[in-house]
């Protein structure tokens, strides 16, 4: 097990290293000047440009440049935005919190109904309930998230006027951004009208999270259903019945834990989907997260931001993947055995 | 010893017939298949069917609702948008941009990915295992994010978006092909033909390929669904098809401002996109079920 | 009579219409008896076992004149009542035992599931340790000495024989009256098989439980078998005392099976053709009418298109219009 953990961590480090190499190369591949692309300082600002040029070692060969790039990366100096000269790393940290906030909440919201309906469908295999759940999940899975968000805004926010259209909180509240996650910030800063502020924040966050949670939920339903069906066909379920256990007990202590094994393995692919959708949702709801910033910077050609945002999101995904792998092998003994056998 | 021929001949349906039977069994799946064929037809011959040009602005008919509402006009069956362009025309043209081009792109990247994957699977060794790890990493990064990066390098535009999606899909096909071949390689029938002394090329085309084609077909539908969704998402983010192009995603983006006054401008491209995606996914799902059933027998 | 099955018919829908996979099967198991059911694969022997346990999925339709266990009719029970009987009085072990163990739970935890609460006497707090002791003693009883290590291991770490022992341990946890063994040794090497048979025979001698053993090979049945039933293609062909049946089979099928097992041919001259049954077992779609052995039977005559009923002939029951070795005059 320890060897496996070490291997996974080593793999993670290697891939993160490759990722930084890729991000470093981007400043050459992007149109324009590589120094500007990586530091965010224009050539007309001669004094600071030469400073950045030397600090990033552009007078040396490319390996040295990469070394200096890494040094800057770890110092937290990810350059400044070409657009408004904000330091990229500080901004990303705040926006990271905001992104994580809605992504995690949506995930949490998706998990319980997703698994519950999946199990329900599997237990009623080929019965009407199964068909209903399956067709809802198939169509829910096919709704393009941006269209769904638009409809939700149009109906809930504009037509009914129940929830606000966009943003994190009513701009009248002044919440000092510390973590970027609005709910956490309110708890940390403890403004005078905390109750009102919280209510406003929750009303703002509800719609994006709801819209965002639909797709992972539908995917989870399908995933849980199919792996549950697999598990129910397994022999150990029969032998559990042969012991005289009640159906409920067989499902709870044998079928569901084994189903979760497959579900956890597939959670990674769900995460990719969630991140993609989060980026789109952030744009639609003007949520100040990484995704919306990244997309804005793509058409503003704000290269330092693109580089930083990409690095951050990709690193997050990779770390979560390795984490899932580790959980998977820690929780499920025979996976470990297979891994050891394969190595 | 000859088998006594007392029983009438049992006819087992061929794999293709089985797939067809599965479609026949499920009316929804059959409907999805027909819709898909219809959309393919539209994206091929759409421009000859439409009454107007996609960017033709009828100044006398701006923001007309669909024909069945009181203010509608039968000339514009599904109404017009805020610039007086016919919605029917734009939706039909959009099929080409949102379905047709991604379809071609998927086919192209499938061809590249599958041949690369087959090569990778045949050449075993360190090269192959590093490739596997790299691919695993690449697969874990969402396709839209990768496409965004490529677009950041090349700049926005429909052709760039298509290129980006094509590039992003290649590793997926590569991965699936390679894994499928690697799985088959373990099976006794492959060992049997190896023992017969067949060449690598024969092994690949006559032994592996017929057995992995099912997996590839499924991956094709998954890839198609991803490509359509991504091209529409890029259009929506104004990074793919640009403004006057009647691509469904960018039509949705344009409809944002007028969604409250003329909701049909927002609803129609969305419905078109939704129906297309449902059909693709449903056809893929049915294929998957049919193939799984064959494996169980 | 512990288990009494009369005219059990199990049917299912296939592409070619409704098929009786089991056709009026009758089977009796007495208290304390080892009864072996022999048939080729696909003859429906496992179906009988599963029908007794109530494991069949709804696409199999089960009908019977009688499916009695002791004095309860299993067919009239609700699923829950049936589960209770199964949990206490009937147990089952399977072929390919490893796949019947949950891969994610330790062996100890799985075994303790089989220990019933009413078997424990202690208070609520003592139950955990008591349960553990019970599991340990179960393991000892099936011949596993290092119970601590076994309880902490997982299914994938066991050999096939050890896994089968675990299954047996779990089956005898609450001293069942009937143990159904569905080809428990068919995937094992002969040495392990003998071990398992010995274990089963010991347990049988110790607790006096009945065993319904299902086997596909006449040559590899338990020596302790008292009664033997032959099943072919969903029909019972012959039932009777094991020794008598092996000595002089009355049904052509039994004879054919016996002829194919080698030990009978020790005295045959060299280069003789090994007698085998012509043809192959019919598939579900093409079951012959009447006696299903008909097309392959060398003694078949026109009346064989009518299904023979299982009739008492001397010391056994035979389902054949022209039984062998009984009274030569009839033949």
UniProtKB/TrEMBL annotation, chain A:
Residues covered by the ABC transmembrane type-1 domain: 96-328
PROSITE patterns to which the protein is assigned, alphabetical: ABC_TM1
Membrane topology: Multi-pass membrane protein
Keyword Transmembrane helix included in the entry's annotation: yes
InterPro entries the record matches: BPD_transp_1_N (IPR045621), MetI-like (IPR000515), MetI-like_sf (IPR035906)
GO MF, one example: dipeptide transmembrane transporter activity
Gene3D superfamilies assigned to the protein according to its UniProt record, in alphabetical order: MetI-like
GO cellular component: plasma membrane
Annotated localization: Cell inner membrane; Cell membrane
Parts of the chain that traverse the membrane: 9-30, 102-125, 201-221, 267-285, 305-327
Keywords: Cell inner membrane, Cell membrane, Membrane, Transmembrane, Transmembrane helix, Transport
Keyword rRNA-binding attributed: no
Family affiliation: Belongs to the binding-protein-dependent transport system permease family. OppBC subfamily.
Name of this chain's protein: ABC transporter permease
Lineage: Bacteria, Pseudomonadati, Pseudomonadota, Gammaproteobacteria, Alteromonadales
UniProtKB/TrEMBL annotation, chain B:
Single GO biological process annotation from the record: transmembrane transport
Pfam families per record: BPD_transp_1, OppC_N
Domain ABC transmembrane type-1 residue range list: 99-284
Bilayer topology annotation: Multi-pass membrane protein
Keyword Protein biosynthesis included in the entry's annotation: no
A GO CC term assigned to this protein in UniProt: plasma membrane
UniProt record similarity statement: Belongs to the binding-protein-dependent transport system permease family. OppBC subfamily.
PANTHER family linked: OLIGOPEPTIDE TRANSPORT SYSTEM PERMEASE PROTEIN APPC, PUTRESCINE EXPORT SYSTEM PERMEASE PROTEIN SAPC
Official protein name in the record: Peptide ABC transporter permease
Lineage, uppermost ranks: Bacteria, Pseudomonadati, Pseudomonadota, Gammaproteobacteria, Alteromonadales
TrEMBL record, chain C:
Gene Ontology molecular function: ATP binding; ATP hydrolysis activity
SMART domains, alphabetized: AAA (SM00382)
Name used for this protein in its record: Peptide ABC transporter ATP-binding protein
Membrane topology of the entry: Peripheral membrane protein
Lineage, top ranks: Bacteria, Pseudomonadati, Pseudomonadota, Gammaproteobacteria, Alteromonadales
A single cellular component GO annotation: plasma membrane
Matching Pfam families: ABC_tran, oligo_HPY
Family per record: Belongs to the ABC transporter superfamily.
Alphabetized SUPFAM superfamilies for the sequence: P-loop containing nucleoside triphosphate hydrolases
Keyword annotations from UniProtKB, A to Z: ATP-binding, Cell inner membrane, Cell membrane, Membrane, Nucleotide-binding, Transport
Main localisation: membrane
